[in-house]
Amino acid sequence: MTIANANGVKGTTFSTYGPCPPPAQDCFVDGPVSLDVMVGWHRAWAAYVTGIGPAQRPGSDAPPIAFGRQIFTEDEYRHMADVRSVFRGAETAAVVALGVLAFRLIRARGDRRAVRLVRDGAVGAAAMVTGIGVAAALAFDRLFLLFHEVFFPQGNFLFDPATSNLLRLYPDWYWEGVTAGVAVSFVALALVAAGGAHLALRRYTRRA
């Protein structure tokens, strides 16, 4: 909603594929969709991809939305299933990374090494994300395509902008806004952690 408002978007136009299946009463063809409806569809997809939210039934691998009509193509549904799989892989990688970090901090506890590890790691992470952010600002489309080629080598992410409802729900300005928001938030938190660790090291040095 915030990203859409920042881009002056109040809605878009979607198209259905084929006849509207009963008992849907609000099926449309080439009809306008309000921003509130788009946000609702986005939340449903997000619940499906992350497995978090009321739209996702425990133990269900089926997409949680059909909207009572054929809004998305089979390729678009398959792509979102692939996105769900990639998200699961990212969750596993995050858990492993946190485990490694906890192990390193436990081994280094009792002296300044743990605090120095937090400071240096936070600074390094902030620098890396900043570098990626600068590259994205200069060549967002190329990096976005590279990301998809790496994580979706099956190639089912290439949709026609003139007909794809998935691209209408998630246009370029959405991904640019999400990328910028995540990057800025990550860098800010990393710098806060680095600053706190640096202050802790200074206090430790004064005491010594």
3D architecture notes:
9% of the residues are buried. The protein has two domains: 1-71, no CATH class; 73-208, no CATH class. It has 208 residues and is mainly alpha-helical. A two-stranded antiparallel ribbon has the order 1-2. It contains seven helices and two strands. It is elongated, with a radius of gyration of 22 Å.
Helix content: 55-70%
User: Main sheet: which strands, in order across?
Assistant: 1-2
Largest sheet: 2 strands, antiparallel
- End-to-end separation: 52 Å
Tell the overall outline.
Answer: elongated
Question: What string, H for helix and E for strand, traces the elements in order?
Answer: HEEHHHHHH
Instruction: Give the count of structural domains.
Output: 2
- For the secondary structure, the number of strands is 2
> Cα-atom Rg, whole angstroms?
22 Å
**How much of the residues is beta strand, in percent?**
under 5%
Overall mean pLDDT: 79
Low-confidence stretches: none
Q: How many H/I helical runs?
A: 7
What class would the helix/strand composition place it in?
mainly alpha
Quick summary of this structure?
The chain is 65% helix and 4% strand.
Please give a handful of descriptors for the protein shown.
7 helices; 2 strands; mainly alpha; two-stranded antiparallel sheet; 65% helix; 208 residues; 4% strand; elongated
